[in-house]
Amino acid sequence: MAKTKTVFFCRNCGNESPKWIGKCNACGEWNTYSEETIVTGKAGKQVSYNKLGTKSKPIAINDIVAGKEQRIDMQNAELNRVLGGGLVPGSLILIGGEPGIGKSTLMLQVALALKNLKVLYISGEESQQQIKMRADRIGIHNENCYILAETSTSEIFAHFETLQPEIIIVDSIQTLQSDQIEASAGSISQIRETAAEMMKLAKMTNVPVFLIGHITKDGSIAGPKVLEHIVDTVIQFEGDRHYGFRILRAVKNRFGSASELGIFEMNASGLREVNNPSEILLSQREENVSGVAISAMVEGLRPMLIETQALVSTAAYGTPQRSVTGFDLRRLNMLLAVLEKRSGFRLSAKDVFLNIAGGIRVDDPAIDLSVIAAVLSSSEDIPLDSKLAFAAEVGLSGEIRAVNRIEARISEADKLGFEKIFISKYNFRGIDVSKFHIEIVPVSSVNEVFALLFG
Ligand code: TYD
Ligand code: MG
To answer: In a designed cystine with 166, which of 39, 117, 220, 291 is the match (CB 3.0 to 4.6 A)?
Structure first.
């Protein structure tokens, strides 16, 4: 017998409640509950999973043959890197991002580039003709790529059985609809149910499935948090729409590091892989402007040089403004307090703006020293040497602290023709200086850095 009941779900984390509540008990967000009607025990077509593969059976762990870890080469170096070295068969991957950022473009491009695998691209958002137009724009021809405009999961399973694809891409999870429950497409209960069905498909057939999911900044469309624990890998596609750059970031990965980054550039014929990020992050540099410092940062395993720009000016109003793009505001406030307290710079009456070039968001602490250098340079109005880079963390007492992977940072700066790099004296000890052309300057305090730069 079918039963109907009304429940409330948190749009942020998917928590369920029998009544509306203002603040979610699970994730603490306010005003995120919405009402949904769900029908349980509905008689209808049951999804027949057992046709999809063998039935499961318990095996002693010692008897399981692990085999060599298999990875599917996605023919795309940046995506391979973010997936942890290629795609794992049978995995379920969620690609989240704001509407218009380029998720469909990326996945279609990947589907077209995989010439040796049969790919099924399922779209609930665009017609087959629209996708064909996009494919023409990307300009790759592939006979092995199939497009299906469908939203019902039972139809999708039927097509899966006849076509037998080797990779499935679903664009997007918010459009999928299962017969099992009656909620509308895009509601939390539908998203959960259809994602669980796609998960079963992936696990039973060993065919990897990509799910595209829309998210908006205010989380008004069901965020990927609802799905995070179901899927194997969560990848975020982000970037500033005003820059051409797009960043693919692993947020969770059962099969690899969750700190890898892939960089793309959107142009007229799709997304171009950016294999040497420093090149673009440094390209638009003006010589001899104050307030600019270059940092040797590391994202995942990859070192890259990035520009930090600061603008320090006298506050126009009583309360000085502090504004950041791509950096943590609290961290900036902390660094400014260190400069004020430990070195006596009077910054508390100044507006400070900080910008990380290229629309990248950085949380590597090694960028601290270049932030300080950029702020000091702007405050003194003295430009820094354009062949100078920085890689160190700054502590609360103004001490310059060691950072990880220092040799990778130094060699990246070296490779790009930088002539000098400031690092912590604690990092300096273990380094074989003769390997590098670049001059390595060990520093121990903010005051010493100031004296070396402007003294
Ligand atoms: P799209 O992949 O539709 O975004 P999403 O699926 O994340 O909503 O990307 C749309 C944007 O990409 C749109 O503004 C046009 C732009 N674009 C290009 O600049 N070049 C291209 O070759 C393509 C296909 C799209
Ligand atoms: Mg799309």
So the answer is: 117
Question: Do 116 and 165 meet the contact criterion of CB atoms below 8 Å apart?
Answer: no
Instruction: Please report, in tens digits, the pLDDT of each residue of the chain (455 residues total).
Output: 667 788 888 877 788 889 999 998 888 888 888 888 777 655 555 555 555 556 678 888 888 877 667 899 999 999 999 999 999 999 999 998 888 889 999 999 999 999 999 999 999 999 999 999 999 999 999 999 999 999 999 999 999 999 999 999 999 899 999 998 888 888 888 888 999 999 999 999 999 999 999 886 654 445 556 788 889 999 988 876 666 788 888 888 998 887 778 889 888 889 999 887 777 667 666 677 899 999 999 877 778 889 999 999 988 777 889 999 989 999 999 999 999 998 888 888 899 999 988 777 888 999 999 999 999 999 999 999 988 999 999 999 999 999 999 999 998 898 888 999 999 999 998 888 888 999 999 999 999 999 999 98
CA atoms 166, 174, 360, 244: torsion sign:
positive
Distance between CA atoms of residues 44 and 397, nearest Å: 67
Place of tokens 């990307």: 138
Residue 336 has a CB neighbour count (10 Å cut-off) of 22
Could you please state the CATH topology (level 3) that the domain comprising 282-454 is classified under: Ribosomal Protein S5; domain 2 (3.30.230)
Distance from the alpha carbon of residue 172 to the mean position of ligand 1, in angstroms? 15
Ligand 1, atom 12, lies closest to the CA of 102
In 242-295, alpha helices (H): 277-282
Q: Please give the number of the atom of ligand 1 that sits closest to the Cα of 212.
A: 6
Q: Which atom of ligand 1 is nearest to the CA of 268?
A: 20
Residue among 95, 105, 107, 130 whose CB has most ligand 1 atoms within 8 A, to mutate: 105
CATH classification (class only), 74-275: alpha beta
Q: If residue 426 lies in a helix (H) or strand (E), which one and from where to where?
A: helix 425-428
105 C-alpha to ligand 1 centroid (Å): 5
